[in-house]
Amino acid sequence: MVDMQLGPKLVELVCSQLGGTGIQMLLLINVQLSKIHNTTFSGLSDTNLTYLDISKNSMSQIDKDAFVHLPHLEILNLESNQVTVLNQYTFHGLSGLKTLNLKNTLKESKIDDLSFQWLKNLEYLNIDGNKNLNFTENTFNGLTSLKNLSMVRCSMNLESVTNKTFISLSKSPLLELNLSDAGIAKLEYGAFSGLRRLQVLDLGFNRIDQELTGDEFLGLFQIILIYLSYNNHITLTSNSFSSIPSLKKLNLRKTKLTFRDLKPSPFKGLQNLTQLDLGNNNIANIEENQFKDLSSLRILNLQHNNLARLWKNANPGGPVLFLKGLHNLEILDLLSNGFDEIPPSAFQGLSNLRILNLGENNVYILPKSLFDDQISIYQLDLHKNLITSVERQMYEIVFSSIKILDMSGNPFDCTCESIAWFVNWINTTNATIPGLETQYTCNTPRKYHGISVELFDNSPCKDTAPLKMCFIFTFTLIVSFILLVFVINFQGWRIQFYWNVSINRILGFKEIDRKGENFRYDAYIIHAKKDMPWVDDNLIPLEKDKVFPFQFCFEERDFEGGKSQLTEIVNSIRKSRKIIFVITEYFLDDPWCRRFKIHHAFQQVIEQSRDSIILIFIDDIPDYKLNHCIQLRKGMFKSRCILNWPAQKERASAFREKLKIALGSSNLVK
Ligand SMILES: *[C@@H]1O[C@H](CO)[C@@H](O)[C@H](O)[C@H]1NC(C)=O
Ligand SMILES: *[C@@H]1O[C@H](CO)[C@@H](O)[C@H](O)[C@H]1NC(C)=O
Ligand SMILES: *[C@@H]1O[C@H](CO)[C@@H](O)[C@H](O)[C@H]1NC(C)=O
Ligand SMILES: *[C@@H]1O[C@H](CO)[C@@H](O)[C@H](O)[C@H]1NC(C)=O
Ligand SMILES: *[C@@H]1O[C@H](CO)[C@@H](O)[C@H](O)[C@H]1NC(C)=O
C-alpha cells in the first residue's frame, strides 16, 4: 500500500524493490500518478500480482505495453482518471484479466478499435460515465469471455442500436448488459440479436421513443429481465414481446406507455413473467384479458395510472375485471388510480395475494365480499382514501391475517356504528400500524374532529342489545327495504306523493308550529348565481303555498343595504331554521359559495345539529366530487334531507311535497 504523491519514476523504483516478493495486491489510489510508462511496472514481472488499483489519479497517459509485465493480473481498476486514449497495445499482455474498471477513466474518450483484443478472459468490463465515446463494430473484438458489460451514463454514438452495434460480442457469453442512461433513442431490427445468452438488459433512463414491434428483441433466447423504465414514449403492439417468451421481469414504468393493440394482449404468451411494472403511465384503458396469460406473475405494479373508469359499475359493459387469472399474484400495487368504486369480485381468485396497495384513491366503501379470497394477505394499504367507517362485517376476516396495516389519512367518522369495532381491534391487534398516533384522526362528528381515532371512547358503544337479535332485525329490515325499493321502482313516487300529502294534511307541520320565536325564516337558501332561475321557479312559489306558506331568506332579496355582506349572511343563517343547498355543477364552481357560505353554514349546523341542512341536487353530482369541493358527503345526512330534482316533469309536485317534509322535520340529531 503506497499512499503519497508519486511520479512514474518513483513508482518504478518502488516496484523494483517489490520484485521477487509475494506481493499480490498493489493499491496506488489518489497518489497523483500522472503517467504509466512501459517500464513503470517492470519490476513486478517476477511477482504474482493479481490486483492493481490505480484509481483517482489524474493520470492522462498509459503507454503501450504498460501492463505487459503483469501476466497474472486479474483485476485492474483505472476508475476516475483523465486518460486521453486507449489503443491496441494499452492492455497488451493482460490475457488473465477478469475484471477491468474504466468508469470515468477517459478524458477525451477515445477507444481505438481492437483495444480489448488481448483480454480473452475478461468477464466484467465497466466503461460507465465516459463521454463522447465512438463505438465501431470492432471496439469489442476479442472479448470472448465477457459476461458483464456496463455502459451506464456513457454518451456515445449509439443513439440507435442496430444489429451491428454489438456484433463484435456475438462470440462472448454476455449475460448482462447495462445501457442505463446512455442516450439511446431507438432500437433497430435485431439490435441484440448476437447476444444469444443475454439474461439481463437494462435500457432504463434513455430517450427511447418508438413502437416495439418485437423485432428489437429477436435472438434474445435466454433473456430474463428487460428494464425499459423511464424512457420517452413506448408504444406496445400485440407482438412487442412475442420473440422473448423466457422473460421473467419487465419494467415499463414512466414510459408514457400506450397500447397500439390491446387485443391480442402485448403480454400474451409471457408465461414465465413474474414481475411487471407498468406504473406512472397514466394508462386509462386495458382489457379484461390483458394479463390473462401471465400465470406466473407474482408482482404487478399499476400505481399512478388512471384505471378508475374500468371498475365503475356504470362502465359500458360493466366493470372490467382485469386481474382475472393472476392466481400467483403476491404483490399488487394500485396506488393512486382514482378508484372510487371497486367491484365485489375485483380480487376474486387472487388467493396468494400478500401485499395490496390501494392507497391514495377515492375509495369510500369497499364491497363486503371484496377480500373473500385473500386468505393470506399480510399487508394492506388503504391510506388517503375517503373511508369513514371500518366495520366488523367488512374487515374482520381480512384483518385477521394482516401484519401491516395502513389506513392513515382517511376521514374517519368517530361514531359507535362506524368506528367502535376498529378502535377495539387496534387496541388488541399485534399488527403494525404505522402513523397510528398522528395520522388516524376523526373527521366527524364535530365532538371528535381532529382527535386521534385511538382516543375515541367506545365504552358507551358496548351495551348494544344482543347482536344476534340486532342482526336478525337488520336482516328483516333490509329484505323489506329491498321489497320496498322494488315497489317504489314501479311508480312508487306516486305512493310517496300521496303519503306525503296525507302526512302534511294530518300533522299540519306540527314541528314547524313548535318552532317558536327563534327563527325568522324557515330556510336560508344557498345557491349559485346562475341557478337563480331554478330557485325562482321552484322554491319561491312555496312562499305562496295555500296550506302552509314558507318564509325563505335570499341574499339577493332579503338583505338590508348598509351592513357588510358577511355580517348579513351570518345573521340570516342564524335566523333561519334550515339551510338549503341547491347543488349543481355551477354551485361547485362558484367560488363565493364554496369558500365562505358553506364553511359558515356547516360550522353552524354542526354546532346545532346536522339535520338542519337540506341538500337539493339538481345535477347528478357524485359523492366524491361533492366531498372534494365542499367537504360534505351524502352519507353524513339523513336521506330525507337529500332531495334529487326529478328528471321527469310529472314528479315535480312529489318533489315539492318531499321538500315540505324535509323543511318540517326536526333538527335534533337522534
Ligand atoms: C454484473 O455486474 C453487476 C455490477 O457489479 C453485478 O451486480 C451483477 O451481478 C453482474 N452480473 C453478472 C451476470 O455477473
Ligand atoms: C441486420 O439488419 C438488416 C435489416 O435492418 C438485415 O438486412 C441484416 O441481414 C441484419 N444482419 C444480421 C447480421 O442479422
Ligand atoms: C445498471 O446500472 C445502474 C447504475 O449503476 C444501476 O442502478 C442498475 O441497477 C443497473 N441495472 C441492473 C439491471 O443491474
Ligand atoms: C419457463 O420456465 C420453465 C421453468 O423454469 C422453463 O422450463 C421453461 O423453458 C421456461 N419457458 C420459456 C419459454 O423460457
Ligand atoms: C385498550 O385496552 C386497555 C387494556 O387492554 C384498556 O384499558 C383500554 O380501555 C382499551 N382502550 C380502548 C379504547 O378500548
UniProtKB/TrEMBL annotation:
PANTHER family per UniProt: TOLL-LIKE RECEPTOR, TOLL-LIKE RECEPTOR 3
Domain TIR residue range list: 519-663
Location of this chain's protein in the cell: Early endosome; Endoplasmic reticulum membrane; Endosome membrane
Keyword RNA-binding belongs to the record: yes
InterPro entries with a match to the protein in the record: Cys-rich_flank_reg_C, Leu-rich_rpt, Leu-rich_rpt_typical-subtyp, LRR_dom_sf, TIR_dom, TLR3_TMD, Toll_tir_struct_dom_sf
Family according to the record: Belongs to the Toll-like receptor family.
Matching SUPFAM superfamilies: L domain-like, Toll/Interleukin receptor TIR domain
Record-annotated membrane-spanning stretches: 471-490
Organism taxonomic ancestry: Eukaryota, Metazoa, Chordata, Craniata, Vertebrata
Membrane topology value: Single-pass type I membrane protein
Source species of the chain: Pelobates cultripes (Western spadefoot toad)
Descriptive protein name: Toll-like receptor 3
